[in-house]
Write a structure and sequence with these properties.
The protein is mainly alpha-helical and about 260 residues long. About 75% of the residues lie in helices and about 0% in strands. It is built from twelve helices and no strands. The protein starts with a helix and ends with a helix.
């Protein structure tokens, strides 16, 4: 009886936490379809007015394209770096390996404000401030850690003697990577790609510091908020949430797929 009560209380607690997190998102989504300008009940009526408004606004379209470009190149760069770092950690033992792993996991642990200021100072010194590639470099530095973590998790499931066995049978190291390592962790690589894209697309603080006049969509939302609270923000927020949620769910789905 006590165990049943404990399980019930655990489920109730988790449900309340989920509702607490999901309620603000649900409010944004609901009022993005409200015809009225102000978020109040009852609804003024169902409308796509605010979605039409953001698609007619050039600065929103430009910032959305910037976010997509940055997200795509960040996902590619972070996945490649994450894979190489995970393989290096999996295959080799070397002096300073602990320090190497620590360096890889540090960026996500640094507060975004501190990371943004540090990257701003570095990129300005090397002449890269205020460009899309500046945001890409900064996002890759953050997302690579997550990509490495996902791929490392899958590589740990692979018997470390299989690749050396292929070398003994005449395969080169490159062939071992192409025909053994990559096929084994293919789903993890895809998951890393989608998660890196989601992290980049949703990131605000670092983009604000290093992007200059090149706004991403989250930065555009901040600039809209500096004037007056506009219902367009609800529509933009809904689109960002939908894309980010889809990318994260895709990453989770690939990670759950077993290697065949």
């Amino acid at each position: 009886m006590n165990s049943m009560l404990i399980r019930f209380l655990e489920k109730l607690y988790l449900s309340l936490v989920f509702m607490f997190i999901a309620l603000p998102i649900a409010v944004i989504i609901v009022f993005s379809f409200n015809e009225g300008r102000f978020p109040s009940f009852p609804w003024s009526g169902f409308s796509l007015l605010w979605y039409e408004a953001i698609f007619r606004e050039p600065m929103v379209i430009d910032s959305a394209l910037n976010s997509l470009i940055v997200g795509l190149f960040t996902a590619i760069g972070a996945t490649i770096i994450g894979f190489l770092a995970a393989y290096l950690d999996y295959r080799y033992k070397f002096r300073g390996k602990t320090a190497f792993n620590l360096i890889v996991i540090i960026p996500p642990a640094i507060p975004p404000t501190v990371m943004g200021i540090a990257l701003l100072a570095f990129l300005a010194r090397v002449g890269m401030f205020g460009e899309l590639k500046s945001i890409i470099v900064a996002h890759v530095a953050i997302a690579s850690s997550f990509a490495m973590a996902l791929i490392s998790q899958r590589l740990k499931e692979l018997d470390s003697s299989i690749e050396p066995a292929s070398w003994n049978l005449g395969a080169t190291r490159l062939q071992g990577i192409l025909f053994i390592i990559i096929p084994h962790c293919r789903n993890a690589v895809l998951a890393a790609f989608f998660l890196s894209f989601a992290i980049s697309f949703d990131e605000f603080m670092i983009s604000w510091f290093v992007g200059g006049m090149n706004e991403t969509l989250p930065v555009r939302i901040l600039n809209l908020l500096q004037g007056q609270v506009s219902p367009r923000i609800n529509a933009i927020g809904t689109l960002i949430f939908t894309l980010t949620f889809t990318l994260v769910i895709s990453a989770l789905w690939f990670m759950r797929q077993k290697h065949k």
